[in-house]
Amino acid sequence: MTSRSATHTGPAGRTADEARVLCDTRALVESPPLPGGVLWKLAESGRQLDANVVRLAPGDRITAHTETRLDVMVLVVAGGGVLGAGPAEEPQPLTEGALAWLPHGASRSISAGEAGLTYVTVHQRRPGMQIGTRPEA
């Protein structure tokens, strides 16, 4: 599901640069459980941010990785799980309402608990793919 304005122009006289409510995360969470994946994503043209509502099914995880360019904010809206904050850090619990900052350059992983995990991510918009020179081997 993408934001309403990605597929509809909205009420007459409304422009793309007006503040508005984009989705109800409670309604997304309350709908029949899905196996996991992106439930909603920000798709407005001209935006400076990327945002997603993501569901991990019970026991699923995002394996350890490092995002080298972007800081990411994660807000848990339903369920629970664990934030793995790199090899030297203790795993941190993620519960409904938890707000986590994942700074660029930091290793992280996310694991869903028994009830699954639904969360919102927000970060600076990624630049589009570009054709460039091949990096040196």
Q: Low-confidence stretches at least 5 residues in length (pLDDT < 50)?
A: 1-12
- How much of the sequence is in beta strands? 35-45%
What percent of residues adopt helix (DSSP H or I)? under 10%
Measure the end-to-end span: 40 Å
| SS summary, helix count | 1
What is the C-alpha radius of gyration, as a whole number of Å? 17 Å
Derived structural class: mainly beta
Shape: globular
Q: Average pLDDT value?
A: 81
- Describe the sheet with the most strands: 7 strands, antiparallel
Q: What is the ordering of alpha helices and beta strands?
A: HEEEEEEE
Beta-strand segment tally:
7
Structural description of this entry:
Helix content is 4%, strand content 43%. By secondary structure, it is mainly β. The protein is globular and about 45 Å long.
